[in-house]
Amino acid sequence: MKKLIILTFLLFIIILPTAVQGQSESGEVSKKEARKLKREAQKKQETIELQKSQQLVLEMVRDTNFVVEAHNVMSPNGLSIPVSASTNFFATMGRDIVIQLASNQSMGANGLGGVTHTGILVEYQVKAEGLDKPIEVSGKIRLNPGTGLIPFDLIIQSGNVAQFSVSSLGGDRIMLSGIIQDAAKSKVFMGTPYFR
What we know:
Helices cover 31% and strands 37% of the residues. It has one helix and nine strands, in the order αβββββββββ. The protein has one helix at 2-62; strands at residues 65-74, 80-82, 89-93, 96-102, 114-127, 135-143, 149-156, 161-167, 173-182. It has an eight-stranded antiparallel β-barrel with strand order 1-3-4-5-6-7-8-9. A hairpin with a 7-residue loop joins β5 and β6 (135-143). The protein starts with a helix and ends in a 14-residue tail after the last strand.
Protein backbone atom coordinates (compact mmCIF):
# COMPACT_ATOMS: atom_id res chain seq x y z
CA MET A 1 0.00 0.00 0.00
CA LYS A 2 2.85 2.31 0.90
CA LYS A 3 4.50 1.57 -2.43
CA LEU A 4 1.29 2.38 -4.25
CA ILE A 5 0.95 5.72 -2.46
CA ILE A 6 4.60 6.62 -3.14
CA LEU A 7 4.29 5.55 -6.77
CA THR A 8 1.10 7.60 -7.18
CA PHE A 9 2.78 10.55 -5.48
CA LEU A 10 5.82 10.31 -7.82
CA LEU A 11 3.63 10.03 -10.89
CA PHE A 12 1.63 13.02 -9.69
CA ILE A 13 4.83 15.08 -9.23
CA ILE A 14 6.13 14.10 -12.69
CA ILE A 15 2.84 14.51 -14.58
CA LEU A 16 1.60 17.71 -12.89
CA PRO A 17 4.42 20.05 -14.09
CA THR A 18 4.17 18.79 -17.68
CA ALA A 19 0.38 19.19 -17.62
CA VAL A 20 0.68 22.74 -16.25
CA GLN A 21 3.35 23.57 -18.83
CA GLY A 22 1.14 22.24 -21.63
CA GLN A 23 -1.77 24.38 -20.45
CA SER A 24 0.35 27.54 -20.31
CA GLU A 25 1.68 26.92 -23.81
CA SER A 26 -1.79 26.34 -25.16
CA GLY A 27 -2.88 29.53 -23.34
CA GLU A 28 -0.11 31.52 -25.09
CA VAL A 29 -1.14 30.15 -28.47
CA SER A 30 -4.73 31.17 -27.85
CA LYS A 31 -3.56 34.69 -26.85
CA LYS A 32 -1.59 34.93 -30.08
CA GLU A 33 -4.54 33.66 -32.04
CA ALA A 34 -6.82 36.14 -30.26
CA ARG A 35 -4.51 39.03 -31.15
CA LYS A 36 -4.30 37.83 -34.73
CA LEU A 37 -8.09 37.54 -34.97
CA LYS A 38 -8.47 41.02 -33.45
CA ARG A 39 -6.05 42.49 -36.00
CA GLU A 40 -7.87 40.75 -38.86
CA ALA A 41 -11.22 42.05 -37.62
CA GLN A 42 -9.78 45.56 -37.33
CA LYS A 43 -8.39 45.34 -40.88
CA LYS A 44 -11.76 44.19 -42.21
CA GLN A 45 -13.51 47.07 -40.41
CA GLU A 46 -11.03 49.60 -41.86
CA THR A 47 -11.56 48.14 -45.33
CA ILE A 48 -15.34 48.39 -44.96
CA GLU A 49 -15.09 52.03 -43.78
CA LEU A 50 -12.72 52.85 -46.65
CA GLN A 51 -15.12 51.28 -49.15
CA LYS A 52 -18.05 53.29 -47.74
CA SER A 53 -16.05 56.53 -47.87
CA GLN A 54 -14.83 55.79 -51.40
CA GLN A 55 -18.39 55.01 -52.50
CA LEU A 56 -19.73 58.28 -51.04
CA VAL A 57 -16.98 60.28 -52.76
CA LEU A 58 -17.62 58.50 -56.05
CA GLU A 59 -21.33 59.28 -55.75
CA MET A 60 -20.59 62.98 -55.06
CA VAL A 61 -18.24 63.15 -58.02
CA ARG A 62 -20.65 61.42 -60.41
CA ASP A 63 -23.47 63.72 -59.25
CA THR A 64 -21.17 66.77 -59.71
CA ASN A 65 -22.11 68.03 -56.28
CA PHE A 66 -18.89 68.59 -54.32
CA VAL A 67 -16.35 71.13 -53.08
CA VAL A 68 -12.57 70.77 -52.98
CA GLU A 69 -11.53 72.91 -50.00
CA ALA A 70 -7.89 73.84 -50.59
CA HIS A 71 -5.32 73.89 -47.80
CA ASN A 72 -2.45 74.58 -50.22
CA VAL A 73 -2.25 76.32 -53.58
CA MET A 74 0.67 75.62 -55.89
CA SER A 75 1.43 78.57 -58.12
CA PRO A 76 2.59 78.24 -61.75
CA ASN A 77 6.22 78.75 -60.64
CA GLY A 78 5.98 75.77 -58.23
CA LEU A 79 5.60 77.71 -54.98
CA SER A 80 3.30 75.97 -52.46
CA ILE A 81 1.29 78.46 -50.41
CA PRO A 82 -0.80 77.46 -47.36
CA VAL A 83 -4.27 79.02 -47.61
CA SER A 84 -7.61 79.09 -45.84
CA ALA A 85 -9.94 76.28 -46.94
CA SER A 86 -13.03 78.44 -46.41
CA THR A 87 -12.02 80.94 -49.12
CA ASN A 88 -9.93 78.84 -51.54
CA PHE A 89 -11.88 76.16 -53.32
CA PHE A 90 -13.26 74.52 -56.45
CA ALA A 91 -16.98 73.71 -56.33
CA THR A 92 -19.46 72.02 -58.65
CA MET A 93 -23.23 72.13 -58.28
CA GLY A 94 -24.67 70.31 -61.25
CA ARG A 95 -23.21 71.99 -64.35
CA ASP A 96 -22.28 75.20 -62.47
CA ILE A 97 -18.75 75.63 -61.14
CA VAL A 98 -16.92 78.12 -58.94
CA ILE A 99 -13.15 78.54 -58.70
CA GLN A 100 -11.98 80.91 -55.98
CA LEU A 101 -8.52 81.92 -54.85
CA ALA A 102 -8.14 84.39 -52.00
CA SER A 103 -5.43 85.78 -49.75
CA ASN A 104 -5.56 87.40 -46.34
CA GLN A 105 -2.69 89.71 -47.28
CA SER A 106 -4.21 91.84 -50.02
CA MET A 107 -7.51 93.07 -51.41
CA GLY A 108 -8.83 91.59 -54.61
CA ALA A 109 -11.71 91.95 -56.98
CA ASN A 110 -13.84 89.47 -55.02
CA GLY A 111 -13.64 91.36 -51.73
CA LEU A 112 -11.59 88.55 -50.16
CA GLY A 113 -8.16 89.37 -51.53
CA GLY A 114 -8.35 87.32 -54.70
CA VAL A 115 -10.52 86.26 -57.60
CA THR A 116 -13.76 84.32 -57.94
CA HIS A 117 -14.72 82.80 -61.28
CA THR A 118 -18.02 81.13 -62.11
CA GLY A 119 -18.71 79.02 -65.15
CA ILE A 120 -20.09 75.74 -66.43
CA LEU A 121 -18.84 72.21 -67.00
CA VAL A 122 -18.56 71.45 -70.71
CA GLU A 123 -16.86 68.03 -70.57
CA TYR A 124 -16.68 65.71 -67.57
CA GLN A 125 -15.27 62.17 -67.25
CA VAL A 126 -14.90 60.07 -64.09
CA LYS A 127 -12.48 57.14 -63.89
CA ALA A 128 -12.62 54.86 -60.83
CA GLU A 129 -10.82 51.53 -61.12
CA GLY A 130 -10.93 50.15 -57.59
CA LEU A 131 -10.59 50.68 -53.87
CA ASP A 132 -6.80 50.91 -53.90
CA LYS A 133 -6.71 53.25 -56.93
CA PRO A 134 -7.43 56.99 -56.90
CA ILE A 135 -10.56 58.43 -58.48
CA GLU A 136 -9.62 60.52 -61.52
CA VAL A 137 -11.83 63.24 -62.95
CA SER A 138 -10.99 65.25 -66.04
CA GLY A 139 -12.87 67.67 -68.19
CA LYS A 140 -13.20 71.18 -69.52
CA ILE A 141 -14.88 74.25 -68.11
CA ARG A 142 -16.02 77.50 -69.64
CA LEU A 143 -15.68 80.49 -67.36
CA ASN A 144 -18.17 83.36 -67.58
CA PRO A 145 -18.38 85.30 -69.85
CA GLY A 146 -17.96 82.65 -72.56
CA THR A 147 -14.18 82.28 -72.61
CA GLY A 148 -12.46 79.37 -74.30
CA LEU A 149 -12.50 75.87 -72.86
CA ILE A 150 -10.12 75.37 -69.95
CA PRO A 151 -8.97 71.82 -69.11
CA PHE A 152 -8.89 70.58 -65.51
CA ASP A 153 -7.90 67.43 -63.63
CA LEU A 154 -9.02 66.20 -60.23
CA ILE A 155 -7.38 63.28 -58.42
CA ILE A 156 -8.96 61.95 -55.23
CA GLN A 157 -6.95 59.65 -52.97
CA SER A 158 -8.23 57.62 -50.02
CA GLY A 159 -9.16 59.72 -47.00
CA ASN A 160 -10.92 62.25 -49.29
CA VAL A 161 -7.61 63.97 -50.11
CA ALA A 162 -7.95 65.77 -53.44
CA GLN A 163 -5.75 67.65 -55.91
CA PHE A 164 -7.47 69.92 -58.41
CA SER A 165 -5.36 71.42 -61.19
CA VAL A 166 -6.48 73.83 -63.87
CA SER A 167 -4.72 75.66 -66.67
CA SER A 168 -5.19 79.37 -67.10
CA LEU A 169 -5.97 80.85 -70.52
CA GLY A 170 -2.28 81.74 -70.73
CA GLY A 171 -1.27 78.09 -70.19
CA ASP A 172 -0.11 78.44 -66.57
CA ARG A 173 -1.11 75.57 -64.30
CA ILE A 174 -2.49 76.16 -60.79
CA MET A 175 -3.07 73.32 -58.31
CA LEU A 176 -5.32 73.28 -55.24
CA SER A 177 -4.66 70.53 -52.67
CA GLY A 178 -7.10 69.78 -49.90
CA ILE A 179 -10.16 67.80 -48.88
CA ILE A 180 -13.21 66.95 -51.01
CA GLN A 181 -16.61 67.31 -49.34
CA ASP A 182 -20.27 67.19 -50.19
CA ALA A 183 -21.38 70.67 -51.30
CA ALA A 184 -24.19 70.65 -48.71
CA LYS A 185 -21.72 70.06 -45.85
CA SER A 186 -19.04 72.48 -47.01
CA LYS A 187 -18.59 75.79 -45.21
CA VAL A 188 -16.83 77.82 -47.90
CA PHE A 189 -17.41 81.56 -48.25
CA MET A 190 -17.84 82.78 -51.82
CA GLY A 191 -16.71 86.27 -52.76
CA THR A 192 -18.11 88.47 -55.52
CA PRO A 193 -17.43 86.88 -58.93
CA TYR A 194 -16.00 88.84 -61.88
CA PHE A 195 -18.96 87.92 -64.03
CA ARG A 196 -22.17 86.11 -63.18
